[in-house]
Every structure is written in structure tokens, then in C-alpha cells.
Amino acid sequence: MYYFIVNRTGGSGRAAKTWHKVRMMLRNNQMEYKAFLTKYEGHATVLAKNISRLPDSEIKLIVVGGDGTVNEVLNGIEDFDRVSLGVIATGSANDFINGIGIPRDTEAAIQRILDPKDNLTIDIGRVTADGRRPRYFGISCGVGLDAIVCKKALTSKLKRFLNKLGCGSLTYVILTVVNLFTMEYIRANVRYSMDEAKTEDDYNSEGTVTEEYKKLIFLAAMNLPAEGGNVPMRPDALPDDGKISALVADGIGKVRAFISLPKLVAAKHSGIRGFHFEDAKYIDIELERPAVLHVDGEYYGDVSNIHIESCYKKLKLL
Asked: 213: burial class by Cβ within 10 Å (0-12, 13-18, 19+)?
């Protein structure tokens, strides 16, 4: 049995057309399925929770939607051992499918789901901040400029306009330029570790790095290479290595940061002064003041103490 969670309202009308095409293909292949349509923000999480509680020995759960819907579903799955996830993309950014290698073409994606050639299991990230409810992420989470941009993109009229033109991912680049010159730097203490720390002394153990950033622009914790409409923050990130691949921008003047933006978009920012690459299983961030945190492009909150970890090969994909 295939279970579909469908967000028909995304992609400026593309989602409804995509779902119609999927239904025709399922009918032509005489596939047995059940479909559930999202009705409000967060509904995909509720649906995924209910589906993952079904007694089936194997649950094939398919998302028809964008990165935000995928994130909601990840945070609803209660039994990752029995659930295999498929994605048919309808969003504007589609960083999740791009990072995994899932086809954007609807027919190719549904064919892969109906006739999988191999089994793929990937890591997902998990973030907790200021004692709030933990959230999983498939693509990334981040604090600072990239989070500010993600938060504003959620309600951006510019994004809706560009979506209609088929170039919604440009929203993130434009908003980055606009907000770069108005944001304030953040002071942050960050610990990167391959082993989970139990006490303060554990942070001094081998394999742990502590950094102080006095003029932090952003810290992006990547599970996949790109976010924000295919901006390759960590082009070397792997989804199955048990690590979070972080990109930190610190101590860069805003004019120089603006000049460096094309190199970042072109994945040529490695080695540029002020850009730091760090890899760890656990990342702990302490900010001097609350700042915006995003999780897969969705607003998590304004927080000051953040714990991020990689959950090794937790998610099975169709």
C-alpha cells in the first residue's frame, strides 16, 4: 500500500497539476493507494504521525509537495524503521530532492517510487534550542543571515511572483543581498564534537573543537550540499556520513561579503578568508542574544542556545 500526503496549494498552481498527473499514472499502473490532502500548516505532520502508526509491516509514504512539506512529514514519522519515504516535488526550491538525486520530472519520480532499483538510507539532522521541542531536518538548519532570509521568504510577495515565472529560487539570493546590509553581527561560542558531551570537561576531549566568533554573519548546518534554492553552502556535504557539515561566515565586512556572494553561489568560496568549514556529529551554539533559527527553511524561533546533531542513516528512501 502506498500512502500519499499531498500539498495541492504549493508551487503557485503547479502542485495541483502534478497531483493530477500522479493520480493518472497510479490509475494506469493499477496501483493501490490512499491519499491525504493537507488542509493547514502543520497538517502533514499530523498525517505522517497517523500513517506511521498503522499496523503495516512496511509503510511506503510519498510526499507530493515542496521542502516545507517534506520537513513536516519528517517530524511526524514515529517509526523510521517501518517507513520508506518517497518525494514528488512541487516546490520552488526543491533542495531536498536535488541533494538526494531524486528526479524533478514527475513521471521519472513516480517510476522510481513504483519500481525502485536500489535502497537508499540517509542521515537526517535534529535540532533543539532553548528547551523547545526538537525538530528533524533533511536539508539544513541555520542561524543568522540565512535564517533571516528563510523567515522572510515564507511571506514574501516577491517569492510568489517569481514562483509564477518559474524562478522562485531567486528569492533567496535577492533577499540575502537586501538583508545583508541591515542585519547585525552576532557573537557566538560554538563547540564541534564527534562525541556527545555529558559534562563541561568532556568538551575538552580529543576530537572536540571550540570556536569563538565575534562577528558572525551566519552558521549553516548542512545535511545536504545546498539550501535556499540550490545555494551550495557545503558542496562536499554527504547525506550518509554521520556528520553535520557546517559553513560559518564570520569577521567579514558586509561589502566584502556582498562581493563574495557570487563565489558562494558558484561553490567557489572554499579558502576565502572569513568562511570556515567544520564537520561534526554534534554542534552546540551559544549566542550572546537571541537570533532567528530556521529548520529546512521554516522558522523555528528566536533562540540563543542551540544543539544540533546528525542521526546516522535514520531515513529510508524509495
From this structure: buried
Give pLDDT tens digits for 263-300: 999 999 999 999 999 999 999 999 999 999 999 999 99
Q: What is the SS3 string spanning the chain?
A: CEEEEECCCCHHHHHHHHHHHHHHHHHHCCCCEEEEECCCCCHHHHHHHHHHCCCCCCEEEEEEECHHHHHHHHCCCCCCCCEEEEEEECCCCCHHHHHHCCCCCHHHHHHHHHCCCCCEEEEEEEEEECCCCCEEECCEEEEEHHHHHHHHHCCCHHHHHHHHCCCCCHHHHHHHHHHHCCCCCEEEEEEEECCCCCCHHHHHCCCEEEEEEEEEEEEEEECCCCECCCECCCCCCCCCCCCEEEEEEECCCHHHHHHHHHHHHCCCCCCCCCEEEEEECEEEEEEEEEEEEEECCEEEEEEEEEEEEEEEEEEEEC
Task: Tell whether the model's pLDDT for residue 2 goes beyond 80.
Answer: yes
Q: Pick the closest to residue 270 from 259, 278, 282 (CA basis).
A: 278
pTM: predicted TM-score of the whole model, two decimal places: 0.90
What are the pLDDT digits (tens) for 194-242? 887 555 555 555 678 999 999 999 999 999 999 988 899 999 999 999 9
Please, what is the Cα angle at 214 between 246 and 248, to 5 degrees? 15
User: What's the grid cell of residue 160?
Assistant: 510568489
The radius of gyration computed from the CA coordinates of the chain, to the nearest angstrom, equals: 19
Residue range 144-201, pLDDT digits in tens: 998 988 887 766 665 565 555 565 566 667 788 888 888 899 999 999 998 875 555 5
Main-chain phi, psi angles of 199, to 5 degrees? -135, 170
Residue type at 292?
V
| Segment 56-80, tens digit of pLDDT | 999 999 999 999 999 999 999 999 9
